[in-house]
Amino acid sequence: MHPLKQNRPLRRVVLASAVTASGLVMLLALKPHTAPEVAAAPSVASSPQATTAPAPSGSASAKAATGTKTVTGDTVQTRWGPVQVKITLTNGKVTDVTAVQYPTDNPRDQEINSYALPQLKSEALAAQSASIDTVSGATYTSDGYRQSLQSALDSAGL
User: Fold this and answer.
1) 74 lies in some domain
2) Can you state the percent helix, strand and coil of the chain, rounding each to 5?
3) Cα–Cα dist 25/46, whole Å
4) How many Å apart are CA 16 and CA 39, to the nearest integer?
5) How far is it, in rounded angstroms, from Cα 42 to Cα 20?
6) Got the DSSP string for 91-126?
7) Which residue of 17, 42, 53, 114 sits 20 to 30 Å from the alpha carbon of 36, by its own alpha carbon?
């Protein structure tokens, strides 16, 4: 009898086990999809808003460039959930960027955002614009962060 034609039950068991384990790993790696929420009308929370702290008196252009101003960007729906940022401007310079909303539905989202959000914040503060790099492994969050940041900057007049 030819060696390839021999019945090898142990080889079949090992192969079947490997295929089953691979299938389970692929199945468990799938992330559940949540449909984005559809708003009937824009609410105050999802629209850009600006609040200005008292600024020293002076000309109109000096008032726009001095003082502290907080602006919240648009809520951006991403594949894994909404992303929204709030910026703080002091004397026309971005001094703080805070993620108001970001995906937190499961432990993987929390893990990704625990390292992505600080990187995105530091890049935004360094760039003073929405021209920031995407964080590897957090592409959707980075894209939503960038879009919300740009809308906040636009609302602030930068």
Assistant:
1) yes
2) 45, 20, 35
3) 38
4) 48
5) 48
6) TTEEEEEEEEE---SSHHHHHHHHHHHHHHHHHHHH
7) 114
Burial class (CB in 10 A: 0-12, 13-18, 19+), 92: middle
Q: What CATH number is given to the structural domain containing 85?
A: 3.90.1010.20
Does residue 17 form part of some domain? no
pTM: 0.58
Judge whether 71 and 86 are in contact, CB under 8 Å: yes
Q: Is residue 65 part of a domain?
A: yes
Q: How many domains does the chain have?
A: 1
- For residue 41, being part of any structural domain is answered with no
Quick: pLDDT tens for 83-113.
999 998 888 888 899 889 888 888 888 888 8
Range of the domain at 69: 49-156
**Residue located via tokens 């949540």:** 34
